[in-house]
Automatic annotation (TrEMBL):
Protein name: L-rhamnose mutarotase
Listed PANTHER family: L-RHAMNOSE MUTAROTASE
Gene Ontology terms describing biological process: rhamnose catabolic process
Gene3D superfamilies named among the record's database cross-references: 3.30.70.100
Organism: Streptomyces gancidicus BKS 13-15
SUPFAM superfamilies: Dimeric alpha+beta barrel
Top-rank taxon: Bacteria
Pfam families according to UniProt: rhaM
Record-level Gene Ontology MF annotations: racemase and epimerase activity, acting on carbohydrates and derivatives
Cited InterPro entries: Dimeric_a/b-barrel, Rham/fucose_mutarotase
Amino acid sequence: MRRVCFLLKVRQDRIDEYRARHAAVWPEMREALSATGWHNYSLFLRDDGLLVGYLETEDFEAAKAAMEATEVNARRQAGMAPFFESLDGARPDEAMTPLTEVFHLE
């Protein structure tokens, strides 16, 4: 299982709404994530808007592609894009660039 960590930046003026939206993630979105290989998926948000995402998956590119093929993901990404800084026209899920793991304590 591969561990994946990525960073995004939530706009300062949208942090409260971003938190509220994640307090009530659509059941069909949760189901799609699980079905497409996203395991142990977590998001951590700092008060300045730095968002840290973490997940475990067999194949991150395949898991992203499988989610991209779902209708619920298209709706979710369109609705969430305005919350982020520096996407340069990309959807949030396209901007999730994995960080390089340099240490892991098993």
